[in-house]
Write a structure and sequence with these properties.
TIM Barrel, globular, 260 residues
Length: 260
């Protein structure tokens, strides 16, 4: 299960709505090579709710830039092209369109659970956390994507966030059943005033062990980087905690490839 390849399969660039125009694909590629990252997948945001990036997303322009970079840097690093789609279970037609483009992988993530539950009042932290958990469950039950992104994202903003461990364990069981690979998202370790030695990635290494006990064989470790400086961040520390129980993989044209 052990690998010497450092990879990052959740990377945003200037093609994501929440990124600076200066955070170009090429800048990220150069940074990844300098940091010894061997595999990178660009996963710019596709959202179809009140934030709608799907409608005018520059699919062709992005693909041309990606192909240019593969030709220029392909001998130094493996480059992959994918998407991070928000709540794909609510947008099956758009998900089908993304699949028709033959991306290497699609991350399914929950970002705006209130949008899909007609909630316009402020929720308590606990109410939001449980709503988030429920939307993640619905998403994995529907499937159709490759990687489960930041399954416990409230951890990033709520210091006292607690898993409903039994509920999340069942969500991971469904991931195994559906062939969905969960990611250990290290962006929570980059938050202000966080000690990365004691803080947990999303999902935690502990829950990765639970996933393995349910029959899960692979996870991804990803930075969810929105700036070239953070590509590959906290990969080694996170991998050290799970390397003996579960393997790493990437996806190429939607097919799982084991990292050896």
């Amino acid at each position: 299960m052990k690998t010497n390849v450092k990879c990052d399969l959740h990377v945003h660039t200037n093609f994501s709505y929440d990124n600076a125009p200066t955070n170009t694909m090429e800048k990220n590629v150069v940074s990844a090579i300098e940091k010894g990252v061997g595999v990178v997948c660009f996963t710019d945001h596709i959202e179809c709710c009140h934030v709608n990036t799907f409608r005018e997303f520059p699919f062709a322009e992005r693909k041309r830039e990606f192909d240019r970079l593969v030709a220029k840097y392909g001998s130094q690093i493996k480059l992959l092209l994918g998407f991070e789609m928000g709540s794909p279970h609510h947008h099956p037609k758009q998900l089908a369109f993304l699949r028709s483009l033959e991306p290497d992988m699609i991350i399914g993530s929950v970002h705006f659970p209130c949008d899909y539950n007609n909630l316009n009042h402020r929720l308590s932290d606990v109410e939001y956390e449980r709503l988030y958990d429920q939307e993640v469950r619905k998403m994995v039950e529907c499937g159709g994507f490759d990687v489960l992104g930041h399954a416990d994202m409230p951890k990033k903003y709520h210091p006292n966030y607690q898993h409903d461990v039994e509920f999340f364990t069942e969500t991971l069981r469904i991931c195994v059943e559906q062939g969905i690979v969960p990611e250990l998202n290290t962006s929570s370790l980059r938050q202000p005033n966080v000690n990365p030695l004691t803080a947990e990635s999303m999902i935690s290494a502990k829950m990765a062990h639970v996933y393995a006990s349910l029959g899960g064989k692979y996870v991804t470790i990803s930075s969810d980087s929105h700036a070239s400086e953070t590509i590959g961040s906290y990969f080694e520390e996170t991998y050290e905690k799970i390397k003996d129980v579960v393997g790493l993989c990437y996806f190429e044209k939607g097919k799982l490839v084991e990292l050896k």
